[in-house]
Amino acid sequence: MRDVMGIINDTMIKQDLREITSHRSTAAVPFGGRYRIIDFALSNMVNCGMKNVGIFTQSNNRSLLDHLNSGKEWDLLSKRDGLFVLPPTFRYDEFGRSLGDVDHFHNHMDYLKRSRQNYVLISNSNMIYNMDYRRVKEYYHQVKADIVILYKEETKVKDLSNFISIKTDEAGLVRDMAVNKEKSMSNKIALETAFMKKSLFIDVIDDCISRGYSDFAKDGLIKNLNHYKIYGYAHRGYVGKVHSILSYFQHNMDLLNPQIWKELFFKSGFIYTKIKDEAPVKYMGNANIQNSLVANGCVIEGTVINSILGRGVNVHKNAVVKNSIIMQKCQIAEDVFIENAILDKDVRITKGRQLKGESNYPMVIEKRVVI
Amino acid sequence: MEKQQCIAMLLAGGQGSRLGILTQKLAKPAVPFGGKYRIIDFTLSNCSNSGISTVGVLTQYQPLILNSYIGIGSHWSLDKKAGGVTVLPPYVKNNGGEWYKGTADAICQNIEFIDQHDPNYVLVLSGDHIYKMDYSLMLDYHIKKDADATIAVIEVPWEETNRFGIMNTREDNSIKEFQEKPKNPINNLASMGVYIFNWSKLKRYLDADRNDTHSDHDFGKNIIPKMLTAGEKMFAYSFDGYWKDVGTIESLWEANMDLLSDHPTLNLYDRDWKIYSVNPSQPPQYIAPHAKVKRSLISEGCQVYGELENSVLFPGVYIGKGSKVKDSVVMTGVRIDCSVKIFKAIIGEETRIENGSIIGGEGDSQEKITVLGENIQISKKARVHGGTIVDTENCHQWGFCIGKDK
User: Which fold has domain A282-365?
Assistant: First the structure.
């Protein structure tokens, strides 16, 4: 896989993650207690042996840059290849139209051309799964595809309005593809990840730009379904796409299923993230903890049930945290009751407060708020 | 090379023979402690947090794990352009090589290393102790007192003075007399094995000691008494806080248990003085719906389905349904199946305990600690009595050694 470069696309701006993405991009959204969503895409790439990863960012990128730092945690701090963080050029063109991902790729054509790899694996930053990309490359050669896109066959066809869905024939060729189609068309959901020759990727970008197109999926892939041999490769494991508060909440809670926990964190390799050197979790004499995921550095004196706790969270005496996601360094004082809530980083809930959302509409508390 | 004001020499070659099977394959400073650390993390983190960025680590006994653990020191932010961490094992010289014969000899054989950095002061540390200390304050004190040597001391209970080197001091904290493990102590200030010397002065004493055939080449036994006799300016620097020498299985177990009280003296959650270590890339721990966890320290990657009380779990430990673990220290990657009972035990890395086994006694607090070595598999419904030490030699009585018989 040394001959494959990775591209993570974090340029999408239209996201319904409310307060959680008001100061960070989707890639940098905390997930699963100690991770950021991008850790999955990034770790999948390095775990299969890729050495060159470029990340296309949007202007809201301070949090992501802080997280990635030199790329050392993913073994991407290297004299040759390594991690390349590519800043956005402009969000809008001279006529005020917002740029599509193709424009962002085009603006960094130098990086693409200069990289010495012959293949490219491109992934959106909001997908959560653990997979070995070597299988994808093998499949690519086996079927002699031009492009391979990854998909997952869902048993229940959900609302597709936030997904890219595809139809494949018996041979695996992609016959139809639709972005955010409301009416259900297929139970095959794209993982928004594609594999192809780098030269082809550059051609597709060039074609799009020269014709005034700007969306990689809609213009680069859908319009080329008859032009290139685009194959679908089925991923049989767990897939999460974070596109709304509810999907964010749900995919976090899915980690409380030990099968999913094991698959996502161990199956094809570890998921790496920024190290914080937190101490082990401390449970006091009065602690009551059940069905929860707890990151290092937490000190638990109260009750925690069905929840995900980020690093360095304190839950004080007689406090109750239920069905909630509590991010890094939140302080939950004595006698507090929290249910169905998402607390962003550094939130402080003072003594005796009660916060309650609904399971289908969790309450979201913005970063650093004191209640 | 750039001149440094003060560099540290960390003695990490000790065997720690009283730790028995826990130090069979690794040196004492590499012994795991506190759910994610190794003992040496405390001294290395102290150096890093005190702004001492040149550290020579003197290794000798079973150095493989320790050497690969320390690496180039990046986990403690000690990978610096000037200085950084240098591991210093004994080496062969022109006229043949020899082992480090004592703590002073270890420093003496590395005079060249210290001279490379040309420091004014040398901080001599031991990698065997658990404590958090700002060495820069001690250095300020040493400079302010215009001392030739400063020795960090801590008050110990009078009944334990016979285990330590005791400093008898004058009113201004200057050291009058040094008593090694005294029977009739006149003071209770014990040396912590933390020394600051003026390098030029220390070098002279090391050179003289090298040729002294009667010397044990030890700081406590030889160098310090010789300097006192010669009338050098020596001061005691009082430290109050947690400090523990985990020399025995009992004290290692105790030091782990010390962390479990609601407000332990050794605070691992201080963001201004973090203890750094090599972090495993494990997910947050999972505590199952019917698990019970009380007064415990649990590290990342653990899965707890059973009951846990007053215990320390290192990364990646699995505790199955119906199992009960109390007053125990369970090291990295241990798997405890269902309906297992464990009381007052230390379980070594990657060991597996099958269904229904009972390890240790039934809750008698006076009972001796049970120790299971690493990579041992205890068979179903085995009974390992309290105080038993299970190692690769005798484990066939209860199970077998993983990777040997299997």
Answer: UDP N-Acetylglucosamine Acyltransferase; domain 1 (2.160.10)
d(CA B163, CA B341): 35
What residues in A contact B282, CB-CB < 8 Å?
Answer: 265, 270
Q: From B315, which residue of chain A is nearest by alpha-carbon distance?
A: A280
B406 has a pLDDT exceeding 50: no
How far is residue B3's CA from residue B6's CA, in Å, rounded to a whole number?
Answer: 9
Closest CA in chain A for residue B45: A277
* Per-residue pLDDT tens over the stretch B239-256: 999 999 888 899 999 999
Domain boundaries, chain A: 4-266, 282-365
CA distance B344 to B326: 6
Range(s) for CATH 2.160.10.10 in chain B? 286-401
- What does the pLDDT look like over B342-374, one tens digit per residue? 999 999 999 999 999 999 976 666 788 999 999
Where in chain B do CATH 3.90.550.10 domains reside? 6-259
* CATH number at A4-266: 3.90.550.10
Say if the Cβ atoms of B295 and A283 lie within 8 Å.
yes
Residues B138-186 have pLDDT tens digits of 999 999 999 999 999 999 999 888 888 899 999 999 999 888 888 888 8
Cα separations in angstroms, A78 against A44, A82, A119, A276, B85: 18, 5, 20, 22, 21
What SS3 state is found at B45? helix
> Does residue B370 sit in helix, strand or coil?
strand
- In whole angstroms, what separates CA A33 from the centre of its chain? 14
pLDDT mean over B24-51: 93
- Chain A residue set in contact with B, beta carbons under 8 Å: 32-34, 256, 258, 261, 264-265, 270-273, 275, 277, 279-285, 287, 289-297, 299, 301, 308-309, 312
Two tokens at A26?
A: 């989707």
CA geometry: angle at B246 spanning B241 and B248, to 5°? 150
Q: Is position B126 annotated in a ligand binding site?
A: no
For B41, the closest chain A residue by CA position comes to A277
Confidence of residue B405 (pLDDT cuts 50, 70, 90): very low
CA–CA gap between residue A258 and residue A245 (Å, rounded): 23
Strand B329-330 to B312-313 pairing: parallel
**pTM flag (> 0.95):** no
Q: What is the pLDDT of residues A140-150, one digit of tens each?
A: 999 999 999 99
C-alpha A136/C-alpha A146 separation (Å) is 12
* Total Cβ atoms within 10 A of residue B345: 26
H-run or E-run covering A5: strand A4-9
Does B254 show up as a binding residue in the annotation? no
User: Cβ neighbours of residue A11 under 8 Å, at least 6 residues apart?
Assistant: A56, A57, A58, A88, A99, A101, A104
Q: Which fold has domain B6-259?
A: Spore Coat Polysaccharide Biosynthesis Protein SpsA; Chain A (3.90.550)
Average pLDDT, rounded, for chain B: 90
Residue B149: the pLDDT is: 94
Q: Which residues in B lie closer than 8 A to residue A281 (C-beta atoms)?
A: 285, 297-299
CATH class of B286-401: mainly beta
Q: Alpha-carbon distance A82 to A78, whole Å? A: 5
What would you report as the CA-atom Rg of chain B, rounded to the nearest whole angstrom? 23
